[in-house]
From TrEMBL:
<dbReference type="Pfam" id="PF06962">
    <property type="entry name" value="rRNA_methylase"/>
</dbReference>
<protein>
    <recommendedName>
        <fullName>rRNA methylase</fullName>
    </recommendedName>
</protein>
<dbReference type="InterPro" id="IPR029063">
    <property type="entry name" value="SAM-dependent_MTases_sf"/>
</dbReference>
<dbReference type="InterPro" id="IPR010719">
    <property type="entry name" value="MnmM_MeTrfase"/>
</dbReference>
Length: 285
């Protein structure tokens, strides 16, 4: 069995629909005449890894920027030119992951300069998405109860080399049940996202719990700005998951309809797919 990374690289090279496969080909062409091959060697393999894993284009942009600097191969203009191809590559396949669907919905609501909350930062994938979406003029408050989650999310953000730095992302090592104590008074939050369950590749016995999730949802409903969104990805296949899912369902169903619009989405032909709840606060009249 070839090592995982090589396996992804080989698969990505064969898969024309892979989201960043065209970036891989461009990178390989660009690197062909490079004399500093050792410094650049990681680029095609890492890009292939991203292509194989269907990572979002923004991750590929970040990788290009990070790898371009040490080898001085690309001018800022050529990095920009490479990066600008990613959205075109992304348009081809439909990414059926529920997180990808959630990000598409969030992008309808979140804008540069907004204040947003990641109620469960985990490994930081959603925090990074939010940090890019609100930009350096916005603010991301990212919560988690696990030290390990906060540490790996922080690394994710630092390594992303965000334009404008990381000063707009603040991490809070506390439960989202206490969210309001950490937010500015009268905060107007455009998005609060909850990706429930356990830390990926972490301790599976440490999961979100119905009671604290409900307290977090209540806090979110009190801080969401008109036109803002509360988004919840809820899993049912781990112990306590079904009870938590039903608590979220109950919360979403009982919100006053003159102020909120709530929806629940499932992939019908997947055995263990999570549910995606979106609770939209109607703009004030
Ligand atoms: C599915 S993971 C989140 C994934 C994350 N959004 C990402 O992009 O990687 C769920 C996280 O919720 C955290 N968590 C559990 N209970 C919590 C609570 N009461 N407040 C905040 N975070 C909590 C867990 O520690 C875990 O890291």
């Amino acid at each position: 069995m070839p090592p995982r990374r090589e396996w992804h690289a080989a698969r990505a090279a064969r898969d024309p629909l892979s989201p960043v496969a065209s970036l891989l080909r461009t990178a390989q062409r660009a690197l062909a005449p490079c004399r500093k091959r050792t410094a650049c060697a990681a680029l095609p393999t890492d890009t292939a890894f991203l292509a194989g894993s269907r990572a979002p284009a923004k991750t590929a942009h970040t990788l290009f920027r990070r790898l371009a600097d040490p080898c001085n191969k690309f001018s800022p203009g050529s990095v920009q030119a490479l990066a600008s191809q990613a959205p075109i590559a992304l348009r081809k396949p439909v990414n059926v992951r529920v997180t990808s669907l959630a990000h598409q919905i969030w992008s309808q609501v979140v804008d540069q300069g907004d204040m947003v909350v990641d109620a469960t930062c985990g490994r930081g994938a959603d925090t990074l998405w939010l940090a890019n979406a609100v930009g350096p003029t916005g603010t991301v408050h990212a919560f988690d109860i696990q030290d390990e989650a906060i540490r790996s999310s922080r690394v994710m953000i630092e390594e992303a080399a965000l334009p404008g730095g990381t000063g707009h992302v603040s991490f809070v090592h506390d439960s989202h049940a206490n969210m309001q104590a950490h937010l500015p008074k009268d905060a107007a939050i455009m998005l609060t996202c909850f990706n429930l369950g356990y830390l990926p590749s972490g301790d599976k016995s440490l999961t979100t719990q119905a009671e604290s999730t409900l307290a977090g949802l209540k806090a979110a409903s009190e801080t969401t700005a008109p036109g803002g969104l509360i988004s919840i990805i809820s899993y049912t296949h781990h112990p306590g998951g079904r009870r938590e899912f039903e608590a979220v369902q109950d919360f979403a169903s009982k919100l006053p309809p003159e102020m909120w619009l709530s929806s629940e989405t499932h992939f019908r032909n997947r055995q263990v797919a999570p549910a995606l709840f979106n609770i939209y606060r109607l703009p004030s009249r």
